[in-house]
Amino acid sequence: MKKVFLKTGATLVAASIIFISTAASALDIKEVIKGVQSKYSGISTVQASFKQDTYYKELKQRDSSTGSVSLKKPGKMKFVYKDPIQDEILSDGKKFIYYQPDIAQAVESPLTEGPPAVAIGFLMGEGDFEKDFNASDLKKTESGYAFTLAPKEKDRVIKSIRVETSDEFLVFKVVVDDAYGGETTMTLTNIRVNEDIKDSFFKFKTPKGVKIIKP
Predict the structure, then answer these.
(1) pLDDT digits (tens, 9 = 90+) for 144-162
(2) Which residues, at least 6 apart from 191, have a Cβ–Cβ distance to it below 8 Å?
(3) What top-level class would CATH report for the domain 9-202?
(4) Closest CA to 14 of 63, 55, 47
(5) Is the Cβ–Cβ distance between 40 and 123 less than 8 Å?
(6) What residue segments make up the domains of the chain, in order of their start?
């Protein structure tokens, strides 16, 4: 199975460009976290292009991939990888599918056994950031804010998440430091919010000849 960010269980979230940190923010970190939470409370869908870069520290290996992502509350997501792989990662809110067309295989698992719940929750602004994370290291960037989140409860996957947002608190970049020694940067561009997406878009239609595996 390929080394795909969600496959390792690391948290996925969004980004679009790399920023240079500047002076300290006029807002305190609690205000920024509340701003992000409030921003996403008014968002029902997100669509974007993404670039994912993962560095495996122990192997000293880097992987990069690009594709598109669609998200819909509650708990629906679809990642379509385009280069260099053509895998798909889907959730219809009930189950998690990791589809690898090159080997005609799809791994299906309950949503609770897929990526950590915090992964999908973070992407869609669900849950309570203040309740679930300790936030620190707030900086004002040229285009918004950057801060670090660490799970308050010990997490088997996530060590920390570095988040960057716009001035309007739209998350567009995250760097995830995971418990497996990996560091994954996810950046989103061409972000569109609140466009209609049918629920059927997130359902996996098994292609002919594809084997479904249920671990």
Answers:
(1) 999 998 888 876 778 888 9
(2) 14, 16, 46, 47, 48, 170, 172
(3) mainly beta
(4) 47
(5) no
(6) 9-202
